[in-house]
Amino acid sequence: MNIDAKQTGVTEALIFRHFASKDELYWAVIERKIKAAPPGEHMRERLCAGGSDLEVLSGVATQILERRAKDQTLSRLLLYSALENHRLSHRFFRTYVAECYEVLAEYIRGRIAEGQFRPVDPLLAARGFLGMVVYHSWIQELFGGKRYQNFSVQEVSKTLAEVWLQGMLSAPQIASSQGTAKFNNGNRRKQEHVQ
Fold it and tell me: Which of 19, 117, 133, 177 pairs as cysteine with 24 (C-beta 3.0–4.6 A)?
């Protein structure tokens, strides 16, 4: 914060005249970043756009990964707040994260009701899918994984959606998806039927 303040000619005292505490300053940054690209709204739009489950979920993953690759500031701030200030991370979860989980859980509930997905807790299933996507983003962007293995966003999105769907599809959908062509590191291979 000191470097940014010096570069702009704004002193720390002036910043804290506007913000009562560091928490309020951090929350203002978080809110500004979220309001610029509301993740719950974007996810809802993608889920309602139609397509196969693979297309829909790959699209959701792509949106998340592309947004996070462009700007990791929010991720860094959230990790810091979770480690240093539990109130701020709880506030963020209640205000934004819970909405994303619920938006995806609505979609999953619908697919369960249609008999396309196995009957599982929709909220836990949503957390599982979003957890895979966010974890990949952290490994690549925050922890430097892309220096060693740089995957295309589309490949990652499709792969994560396929992996998740294999655990979610009801028995008839799993059987019909077996034997379809899959890609692995750019090479076409035949998926073996797993019993």
Answer: 19
